[in-house]
Amino acid sequence: MRLLILPVLILLPLSALAAAKHISFDSLPTAVQRAALLEMHSGIMHGCSTDTENGKTIYDVETLTSNGKRDLIFDASGNLLEAKEQIPLATVPPAALKALKKQAAGATIRSVASVKRGNATTYEAAVMQHGKRRAIAVDANGNPVHD
């Protein structure tokens, strides 16, 4: 039985990496290209990929901004499904910042990202404690968010 588990454990991360396919900007559908150019603002194109989520093709356009990474996810029609952007800790709304610090419980907050899905914005923090990383998330009012 142990002999079967090891190959499965090795192949699981490889299959997750193979799910997203890196593509060129020119390979994106025209509607996605237009929408991405509008959403990029002053960012610099870093890369593009395509994936399937719930049976639908999605397109991820990675950009670099003055704050760091900004990922834009579109459907095939060019509708923005999600925008995730690294932001300075000082720009997090006070209630959300207080909740993130409370959830971090003494851990070091390494980075924070605002995540916009539709009309909702959440704040995700990557924290490090005792050499272990974990993620925490809250909404603008400081309420915990669970995926």
If you had to describe this structure to a student in words, what would you say it looks like?
- With 147 residues, the chain is α+β, with helices and mostly antiparallel strands.
- It folds into two domains: 19-82, Inhibitor of vertebrate lysozyme, Ivy (3-Layer(aba) Sandwich); 88-147, Nuclear Transport Factor 2, Chain: A.
- The protein contains three helices and eight strands.
Outline of the structure:
The protein contains 3 helices and 8 strands, in the order αβαββββαβββ.
Task: Offer a few descriptive terms.
44% strand; Inhibitor of vertebrate lysozyme, Ivy; disordered N terminus; alpha+beta; eight-stranded antiparallel beta sheet; Nuclear Transport Factor 2, Chain: A
Uncertain residue segments: 1-18
CATH architecture type of the largest domain? 3-Layer(aba) Sandwich
How many strands in all?
A: 8
For the largest sheet, list the strands in their spatial order: 1-2-3-4-5-6-7-8
Q: How would you state the average pLDDT, rounded?
A: 87
Order of helices and strands: HEHEEEEHEEE
N/C terminus separation: 33 Å
Large-scale geometry: elongated
What profile does the largest beta sheet have?
8 strands, antiparallel
The fraction of residues assigned to DSSP E strands is 35-45%
| CATH level-3 fold name of the largest domain | Inhibitor of vertebrate lysozyme, Ivy
Helix and strand composition category: alpha+beta
